[in-house]
Amino acid sequence: MRLQESGEMYLETILILSRKSNAVRSIDISEYMGYSKPSVSRAMGLLKADGYISVDGGGYITLTESGRKIAEKIYERHNVLAEALKMLGVTEPNATADACKIEHDISDESFEAIKRHLKKKV
């Protein structure tokens, strides 16, 4: 079963926050994403049930191996696509926003082709 875009966004957010601090809680995710606490809590429950995250007794969230794999894939796509768009002359805010939309739908084949093309340019 393919994870929905919102689930991918939550996993990516957990990865980003965990790189800034070892302790990630639902409130941190809520503040970072601008979502309500109940929405984040429900999403964390679903991600936990599906085995993408674990939550300890103190409410601290960590990515499981499968969750980390998806988060890193989405995070890489976001960064590469944003950089490609900026190289084409797109402003930083638009490149970041557009990369966020594209990262969830682009095929692996197309993404790998973009990465190969960018490596030739660098």
Give your account of this protein's structure:
The chain is mainly alpha-helical. It has 6 helices and 2 strands; from the N terminus they run H-H-H-E-E-H-H-H. A hairpin with a 5-residue loop joins strand 1 and strand 2. The protein is elongated and about 50 Å long. The N and C termini lie far apart (37 Å). The mean pLDDT is 93.
Number of domains: 2
The CATH homologous superfamily of the largest domain is called: Winged helix-like DNA-binding domain superfamily/Winged helix DNA-binding domain
* Beta content: under 5%
- What is the H/E string? HHHEEHHH
Shape, principal axes of CA atoms:
elongated
Report the count of strand segments. 2
Terminal Cα span? 37 Å
Which CATH-level-2 architecture of the largest domain? Orthogonal Bundle
Please give the radius of gyration in angstroms: 15 Å
Report the total helices: 6
Query: Quick one: biggest sheet?
Result: 2 strands, antiparallel
List keywords for this structure.
5% strand; 122 residues; single chain; Diphtheria Toxin Repressor, domain 2; 6 helices; mainly alpha; Arc Repressor Mutant, subunit A; 2 domains; two-stranded antiparallel sheet
What is the fold's blueprint, element by element?
Blueprint: H1 5-20, H2 26-33, H3 37-49, E1 53-55, E2 61-63, H4 65-87, H5 92-102, H6 108-121
Antiparallel strand pairs: 1-2
Helix pairs in contact: 1-2, 1-4, 2-3, 4-5, 4-6
